[in-house]
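Model: Ready when you are.
Researcher: Fold this.
Model:
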Amino acid sequence: MTGSSFKIALSAGISLIALSGVAQAQSQVQAQNADEPVKEVVVTGSAYAVSKDALMSNVDVLKQAQIDEMPARGLGDMLSDLPGVRSSGFAPGASRPIIRGLDGFRVLVLNNGMGQVDASAVSPDHASATDPLEAQRIEVLRGPSALTYGGNAIGGIVNIIDDRIAGAPAKDGLDGRVTAQASSVDEGYQGAFNLKAGNGPWVLTLDGLKRKTEDYKTPVGPESRRLTDAEGEEPDTGDTQVNSATDLESYGAGLSYVGDFGFIGFSAKQTNSLYGVPGHSHEHEEGEAEEGHEEEGPVRIDLKQTRYDFRSHLNIDSGPFNSLQFAAGYTDYEHTELEGDEVGTRFLSDGKEFRANLIRQGMGEVSGVIGINGLTRDFEAIGAEAFVPSSTTKELGVFSQGRLDKGNWGVEGGLRLDQKKISSAGFDRDFTNTSASLGAFYKPSDHSFFGASLTRSERAPSDVELLANGPHAGTGSYEIGNADFDTEVGYSLELTGHWLMDEHSDFTFDAHVYTSKFDNFIDLRPTGAEQDALPVYQYVQTDADFYGLELEGGINLWARGDKTVRFDATYDYVHGDSDLGPVARIPPYSVTGKVSYTDPRWTTHIEARYAGEQDRLTEQELPTDSYTLVNLFAAYKVARFEGVSVFAEVRNVFDEEAREHASFNKDILVQPGRNLRAGLSYRF
C-alpha cells in the first residue's frame, strides 16, 4: 500500500476517533475470572462484549463441551445444522460454512479475530486450516453486521476462539480437557487435549488433536440418480464414498504473562492434513496417453500450515477508553494436490496481519471501539491447473463502532474505511471502500427484545474473481475472471425479535427476517462453451436480491426440580435472485425438531431434520431431492469420576439418502449412512 493511501486511511481513523467519542470494548471472554458466573456474551461482531440476547443480528455460540460431543467433522459440516447455515460439503476433509446462501469470499472465517491466510475461499475443495476441535468456543454471526471486519464479512463471520494464548491463570494452577470418540460409518477416531498450567504471572498452554477416518459407507450409490439419468448411465449401486478418507493432526503451544494490567502472550501452531477429494478427476487432451501420460489416480490434498500469533489485552485509563487490544500474526500455508503418487498443483499462501482496538466498556451507557487493521498476503499457484496467477494483496482498514444502551432502548452504529491493493504480473488495482451501519432496539420487558439494523457494505473483488483464467478441477470447470470489476455493494435490512424464558414463562422464541440488495454482485455463471473438455464459467457482475428468515423456538413440556423435558424447533429459508436468474446453489428451506430430557447426570434427545426439495436452478444445476434425517443422542456425567462424561449417538437412524444442494459436487457425493459413534471427555 502506498504512503499516501496509508495517510488517507490513518487520517480517517483519527477523524473517527474525534467524531465517535465511543471506543470499542472487546473484553475478551477468556480474560474473565473462571470463578465468576459466566454471562453469555458475544465479542466477535463489535469487539466489545454484548449479551447474546441483546444483539440485533442472529448469532450462535458453540462452547467447547458441545463441540467435544458433536460428530468428528470439518468446520462447515459441524455448523450446517444451525439455522441459516449450510456446508460447502465438498469432502469430509474440506467444508466451509455457507451463510444465508453466501459463501467463499463473502464469509469470513477467523481464528481469535484474525484471518486464516489459507486458500479455503479460493476453491470448495480447499480445507480451512483451523479445526473446530481446537476451539474453546465458536461464534457464528449471520449477515453483514460485523462491520469492524470489512466487506469480506458481508455474508457473515465464523470466529474460532481458542485459549492458546491464555488471558487468565489456570484454575488451581492446572486445568484442561481430554476428549476422544470413534465412529462406525468411516471406521474413524479422533482425540484432542488442551492443558493450561500456571498460577501466574506466567501461564503455559499446550494442545493437540488427531483425526483419522477411512472412506465412509453410504446409503445409496454416491452418484445421484438424477445425474446418471441425465447422462444415460446405469444407476450407481455402490455403497462407499471412494476417496473420502481423512488424516488430520494439529498441535500448538502458547506462553503468556498475566496480571492486573491484563495479559500479553505468544503462540505457535502446526497443522497437517491429508484428505481425499471424491469425484475429483483430471482429464488430459486426446493423444496425451501416447506421449507418456498415464491415467491419474485419485486426488488427495496434502495441507500444511505453520502459524505464529502475538496477542495482548491491556487495561488502561485514558479518557473515554479503558482497554487496548493488539494482535499480530504470521502464517505460512501450503497445500499440494497429489494425483495418485504424482505432485499436481501447489498452492502457497503466506501473510502478515495486525489488528489494534481501543475499547470502552462498562463505563456508563456507552460502549464502543475504534481500531485499525492491516494485512499483506502473497499467494502463488504452481502447476498445469493453476487457474489463478500469483498475486500480492495488501489491505488496510480503520473503523469505529459504538452502542448507546439506555436500558429499555438503545442505538448502535459504525463506520469503516478500507483500502485494498491487488498486484500480479502486469496487473495492479486499488480499491477504496466505505461501509456503515445503524441500528436501534427496544426492550419492553426483561424477557423481550426487538431490533432493526440497516447496513451498507462494500467489498472489493478478490484476486480469483479478477484474475482467474484456467481449468479449475475442484469445480470441474474452466473459470474466467474479469480484471475490470467494480466494487460490490450490499444494502441489508434485518429485523430481530427475542422472547426469553423466565419464571413466568417456559417459552422462548427468536426471529430474524432479512433482505439484502446487491449492486455489482459477482457471480460465477456458465457460458455454454467448453475449453480443455470442461464447461466454461465466467465471473460476471449483476444486481442481486436476497431475502429470508430464521426462526427458533422452544418450550418446556415438563419440569420437576432439576429434571426437564423440552421441545425445540428451528426453521430457515433463503431466496436469491439476480438479473441473470436464480443465484446458484441456494439451499432449500429446512425444519428441525428436537425433544430432549436433561437432569444433573443425563442429557438425551431425539432430533429430526427435514430439508426441502430445491428446483430453483441455474442452467447447469440439477434439482436436489428432499430428505429427513433422524438422530438419537445420550450423554452421562459419571458420578464416580468428577469431570468425566460419556456419550453415544446414532446418526441417520433410517439410513436416508441426503445431498446438500449448496455443494458443488452434491450429485457425486452423498452424505454418510447410518453411523454409531461413542466417546468420552474429561475436564479437570
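Researcher: Now this one.
Model:
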Amino acid sequence: MAITLILVSVAWRAGLATRGWFSQDEFVIAAQVLDTGLEADYLLRTFNNHLMPGGLLVAWLMVRVAGFATWPWVLLLAVGQAAVGLATWRLLRSLLRPGWGLLIPLCLFVFSPLTLEVSSLWLVGLLVLPMQLALVLAVAAQVRYARTRRPRHLVAVAFWLVFGLLFDTKSLLIVPLLFLLTVFLFTSGRAWRSLVTAIRRYWPAWLLLSALSVAYLALYLTRPSGELNEPTSVGQVLTFLGDLVGETLVPGLLGGPWRWTYAGDGPPLVDPYDIAKWLSWALLVTLVVVTVRRRPSAGRAWLLLASYLGMVAALFAVTRLGGPLGPLVGAVPRYVADVVLVAAICVGAALLGTRDADEDEVSAWPVPTVLREPGAFAVGLVSIIVVLATVGVGTLWSTARFGDNWKTKYGREYLATTQAELAAAPPGTVFLDTVVPDRVVAGYFWPDNLQSHFFRPAERRPTFVQEAAKPSTFDDFGRIRPVVVEGRKIMSGPVAGCGHLAQGGQPTRIPLDGPLVEWPYVVHFGYLSSGDSTALFRLGDATREITLRSGLNDVFFLIEGSGDAVEVTVRTPGVGVCTQLITVGRAVPAP
C-alpha cells in the first residue's frame, strides 16, 4: 500500500509539473550554464547566496542535454520524489512502532501541498529534493547509530550530511536536527539529564558533525556572495513568523492552503481562507493535547518539531526579510518543505510512539464515563473519519488549485512566439540586445534578463548586433517589431535647415534635454551626410565608432555612459553631417 501511495503521488505531481515550465531563476541558471565551462569557479559560485555545486553540476549537464524541453526535467524531479518517498517510508518503519498508522505520516509528507513547488520547479527541486533525501537518510543512519553505536552508521551520517551540503547550504540544519532528535527521542528524564546523556553517549557523532560544519562554513565564507537581507524591524519579524507558521505551515499540514495567490510565472503563494485557517489551528491543538495525554513521550516529538521550525524561521528571518520580496517570504511554501518532512516524523512519533520508547511511558487515556457509552464511541469514530476525509479533500482541492495557477506561463508563450517569428523573419533581420519583459525574467536579474542571455538555450536564436540601420526587437508578446528609442532628445540646433552641423575633424557638442545617469543606452541617430565617413560618438567618458553613409539615414547603436550632452566628431575631412534627431534611452518595439 505504501509503495502504491508513493507512486500515485509521484505520477500526480509529474502531471502537474508538465502543465508548467521554466520560471525566472531557471532562465538565469540556464543562461549562465551555457556561458561557462565545467570549472571549479562555476561549481563553487553562489547563486542567491546558495552554495550548491551538486545542483549546478546537474543543471550544467541537463541544460546542455535537454535545453528548454520539459519532459527531461519532469523525469528528473519524479525520480527525486520517488527516492525521497521510499527513503521516508523506510525511516518510518525503522523508527516508529509498526501498524497501518504508519501510512498517516507518510501521506502527510508525500501528498502535502506545501511541497508542490519542489516537485514542479526544477531549480527548487535541485535544491530541496537532495536536502530532503540527505535529511531522511542521515536521520535513519543516526537512528541506527544511536541503537548500536557502530562506526559504520556514523560514517553514513557524515556521508549524507556532505551529500546534502553539495546541493544546499540549508543542509547545515541537519546537524542540530540530529542532535535534537537524539535528545528528544533517544533519551529520557528531565531536560538537563537528556542533554548530558546525549552528549556523553554519542559524543563522536557531535565531534565529527561539528568538524564537517566548521569546514563547510570556512569554505562558504570564502566564496563571493550577496549581502544578507536582514530585517528592518521587530514588527517585520513578527509578521513573518505569523505568516510562516499561521498562514503557511499549520494550514498546509492539514490539507491547506486551499487558496493560492498568483505570483507571475513563479509558483503561487499561499492565501488560506480565514475560517479554514483557524479550524486547522484548532485541529492541531486538539491533536497535540490528545497525543500528549495518551502518550507523554509525544510531548518530546512536538518539541522536536517546534525546535526545528524555530531554527528554520530564524534562518530566514536574518537572511531574507530585508529584500524587496521580504513581505512575501512567509507565504512561500518551499521555505518549509523540509519542515513538512520533519513534521511527518514527529507526528508519527506522537501518534504511534517510537520502537525505542519504554512501554511504561504509554499511559491509558482517562476516558470520562459519559464517553464510554457505545453511542459516544460511535460518534467519536465518525468524527475522526470526517476529519480525515476533510483533510484529504482539502489536499485534493489545494493541489488542483495549485495546478490552475502553475499552468499560466508567460515565459513559455513568449518563447514559443519568438521561435515562430524568427522562423518566418526575412534574412538579415538583426536585433539590438535589450531586456525581456519583467514577467518573463525580472529586472533585478540584470544582466541575465537580456535577450542575448535568455535565448542561449533556445533552438532559434536572434542575431544581435551593436549597430544597425534598421534593427528589430521583440514586443512583450514575443512578436518582432522595429526599434524605436524612448529617452532624452537633443535640443534644437542653431543652423537653419540643418539643426546641428558636425564638420569633418571638428568635435561638435550637442546638448540633451536632460541629464543621463551611468547606464547602458540605445542611441537613435538620424542624420543627413554629404558623404560616407565614420564618426566618433561620445556620451560622457564613453565613446563608440559608428559608420555614416551619404544621404538621409538612421543608425541605432549601443553605448554605456552618462552626461547631459553628446559629442559627434566626423572622421573624414570635408564631410558635413546635419542632425536634428538624436535620442538616447531605451529601445522599445514600434507600435
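Researcher: Key takeaway?
Model: The chain has a mean pLDDT of 87.
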